[in-house]
Amino acid sequence: MPPSPDAALFAALVNSRPSPPRDEAAELADLVLRLASAVRQTTVALREASACLAGEEVGTSLAELLARAEAASLDQANCTTALIRHLAPRLAAA
Known about the structure:
Number of helices: 3
Oligomer: single chain
Radius of gyration: 17 Å
Number of strands: 0
Order of helices and strands: HHH
């Protein structure tokens, strides 16, 4: 499976700048992985919610699915904000 456009964008951003110290690089990698996981969680929850709305049996209530999607979306926002804070100084200096 080819990498997602977001993964390619993050890789290009990280690779276009001088390598950060190892601790920062590990933190950035963790943020990117958390973001990708949150995107997957949101997608799964919303797909299941759509199936629930279509009358399919998904084994979880619509309210629970929407709550999971909301929590994952908030995690996406937090990860994105943290990534921007990490990358903004390097992009401004370029």
